[in-house]
Amino acid sequence: MNPKATLKYFIFASTFVLIGICISCNVTSNLEKGSNSSAIDGVWELSHFYNLGNGDTLSVDTSKVQHKIYLDGHVIWNTDPAADASEWHGYGTYTFKNDTITETLTSMSKSMQSDVNTYVIPIERSNNTYKQVNTYERNDTIFQNIEIYKKLN
């Protein structure tokens, strides 16, 4: 084989391999991003809030103002101050997998501060809404806060 042909073949083969690697990395990156965040990324507004105690509805609130923003693995949420003027907001990172959001808050209002800063939240979702159920126990009563969000963007 002549040296010029060998050099051309080497350049062609190297270019082909390099393009293949770039395409593969891009596809892998997009798949990872899509499975982790893109399905939930966006601005979400609370539309309904239900508080249950041992399965009985204690309250329903459709006027509560609360927003969550999920973007590129980060989460920030806020709500209007409570009747006692306490603030409720948080910021941190999140992952989304198998219809479960795991939020790890790194900054939060004083009312949120505790030994727990990671929240595993199973959700049910459709294209423009999702429902999360937070369950906790106090004095032999099992409480559930059910939040339904609608997507704004």
**Low-confidence parts:** 24-36
Q: Give the helix/strand class.
A: alpha+beta
| Arithmetic mean of pLDDT | 80
Instruction: List how many beta strands DSSP finds.
Output: 9
Largest sheet: 8 strands, antiparallel, barrel
Question: Order of SSEs, N→C?
Answer: HEEEEEEEEE
Give the distance, in angstroms, between the N- and C-terminal Cα atoms: 60 Å
Percentage of helical residues? 10-25%
| Oligomerization category of the chains in this entry | single chain
By DSSP (H or I, 4+ residues per run), the number of helices equals 1
Give your account of this protein's structure.
The structure is a single chain. Helix content is 24%, strand content 51%. The protein is built from one helix and nine strands, in the order αβββββββββ. The chain has an eight-stranded antiparallel beta barrel. Mean pLDDT is 80; it is low at 24-36.
